Amino acid sequence: MRIFRAYYKPRHGPSYSHKGTGAGDIPVNEKIPGGISGNKKNGQRTITSDQADRQVPGFFRAGRELLWTQLFFYLRSDIGITGGGGKVTMKKEIVVGVTGASGAVYARRLLEVLCKDAKVHIIVSDVAAKIAAHEGVSFEGFRAEYHPNDKLFASIASGSHKLDGMVVIPCSSKTLAAIANGYADNLIARTADVCLKEHRKCILVTREMPLSRIHLKNMLAAEEAGATIMPASPGFYHKPKKIDDLVDMVVARVLDHLEIEHTLSQRWSGSDA
Question: Model's pTM, two decimal places?
């Protein structure tokens, strides 16, 4: 606001400047247009900081207050620096549902990436927890909000709660059927149902083979409702050397569809073969 103070001039009378000389700006009896007293120093009239502030038009002062309000909101909000190039973006909020199919390692790896730079909600079904324990995978210790699968009163069960998307990984055939047919009898199915009706991202990482006609029909129904069907089917063109490379290949594609930057796998850049 110093700019406005330095350059704003009264409509009538001579120009005045604000020197900011502190104690030297003691008002004297000399009157300055506008009813403000000031002193004359080095042949130039000066006014105090408060006096200058009163000469700033009201809409300038209102703009200054709005600027401070916006700065306060920025410092207290979830806005942060994400992605590259120092771009300021809102922190993404993602729900990860883990259901009763083999492949808990996919969910674990996705959570390792998401929880670094996003607000994450985790829902693990009872069967998924048992399968994960059998496969030696744990979902404990993440910087995330955990929800029981039977807690249908959770915030994420409502469309009024803003989300950027949901990933069901791995997605069992039972959960696929529930989502495809709108049977929201638990929190995972309900949150997916909310994402579909609110036109938000809903990614289903199916993990089943071979597929029956029922599975295929349910996949088609879910896709037609707005879901993205993404079977856990890693590629091999990046020449994986260990299982982790195959897991990263699948998780990388999920992150791509969530529009989250990553460096998990090498992108295809063409071949001369």
Answer: 0.68
